[in-house]
Design a protein that fits this description.
Elements: H1 3-6, H2 17-28, H3 34-45, E1 49-51, H4 59-70, E2 84-87, H5 92-98, E3 105-110, H6 120-132, E4 137-141, H7 144-148, H8 152-168, E5 172-176, H9 185-196, E6 202-204, H10 216-233, E7 238-240, H11 248-261, H12 277-292
Parallel strand pairs: 1-2, 2-3, 3-4, 4-5, 5-6, 6-7
Helix pairs in contact: 3-11, 3-12, 6-8, 9-10, 10-11
Length: 304
């Protein structure tokens, strides 16, 4: 279906900023008991997409990250793996080889990440290439310039085209809005509602390549858009806040927010992810503290 047909009756929902702030303040004020905390920390660890997206990335660096994805901490038993590793398309094959035999997925950024500033054919070619290399998931960026100009048909047609390629190969699609470039939570809600018209597998906050990344207010707005879409269509879409989430306490607050807005059905890595590599080490430090009663020094945790 084309964007023209989908957007004929397109309406977006304005955001109550005070309501958002109040709801987040209430979530942050809740205390979490020790046993629930341990369960939540392990759940969060299993929802992480370990990520390296640097120009200096090498096969060796990716292979080391993949080992950590499967073995978060060699001396702590009973830990889950992370959900996925996220790399550039040229390193997908390296990641697939390193992760062979595990349940950890390989996600590849595509569509001229992080700017999205190229033509549609180049974006589709890169998506085809990443899938051909073995990617299980594609994280695409929307054309923020086109969105801010009000060219909603253009943005939606791109998402639909990439989704068709992904789903033809049984590959899941995450759509990155780059919320820090959209200007306001009203624009975040509008972009979320627009992307959801294409029924992607996830919507995602950020590339992690600009100063403004994931925040709880932005994530709450996107979660509410997902819930409203589910109520209208019965179609479940996942959520991935990415960038800037580096401590375990924040991760637990995000999980509380997901449970409150979407329900426990979304509290699996099939429907919720963290795009945050540094978060893994802080979760491991907190789990070690719960286990032994003391923090381990930083040298006991691998660098990402």
């Amino acid at each position: 279906m084309s964007a023209n047909n989908l957007l004929q009756n397109f309406k977006w929902t304005p955001v109550d900023q005070m309501g958002v702030d109040d709801r987040i303040a209430r979530i942050k004020s809740r205390s979490i008991k020790d046993q629930t905390k341990i369960q939540g920390l392990k759940m969060a660890l299993n929802m992480i997409d370990l990520t390296t997206l640097e120009g200096a990335d090498t096969p060796n660096k990716v292979s080391q990250m993949c080992y950590k994805a499967m073995h978060p901490h060699d001396s702590m038993l009973g830990l889950p793996t992370v959900a996925a590793v996220c790399v550039y398309p040229t390193l997908v094959k390296t990641a697939k080889k390193a992760l062979r035999g595990s349940n950890v997925k390989v996600a590849a950024v595509a569509t001229y990440f992080p700017s999205g500033q190229t033509n549609l054919q180049a974006k589709l070619d890169e998506t085809h290439y990443a899938i051909g290399e073995g990617a299980d998931e594609i994280d695409m960026v929307i054309s923020r310039g086109k969105f801010l100009q009000g060219e909603y048909n253009y943005v939606l047609d791109e998402i639909i085209a990439v989704k068709e390629i992904c789903h033809a190969s049984n590959v899941r699609l995450k759509v990155i809005l780059e919320t820090g470039e959209l200007g306001s939570v009203d624009e975040v809600r509008k972009a979320s509602d627009l992307a959801l018209q294409a029924n992607p597998d996830f919507i995602k906050t950020s590339t992690g390549k600009i100063g403004q990344a994931a925040t709880m207010p932005v994530t709450l707005v996107m979660l509410q858009a997902i819930w409203d879409h589910f109520q209208k269509t019965g179609i479940r879409v996942g959520m991935k806040p990415a960038g800037g989430i580096s401590d375990a306490k924040s991760a637990l607050h995000y999980l509380l927010m997901v449970k409150e807005v979407l329900g426990e059905e979304w509290l699996t890595n099939e429907w919720f992810r963290f795009g945050a590599s540094r978060l893994a080490n802080d979760i491991l430090m907190q789990l070690a503290k719960q286990e032994s009663g003391m923090y381990q020094a930083g040298q006991y945790f691998s660098k990402d």
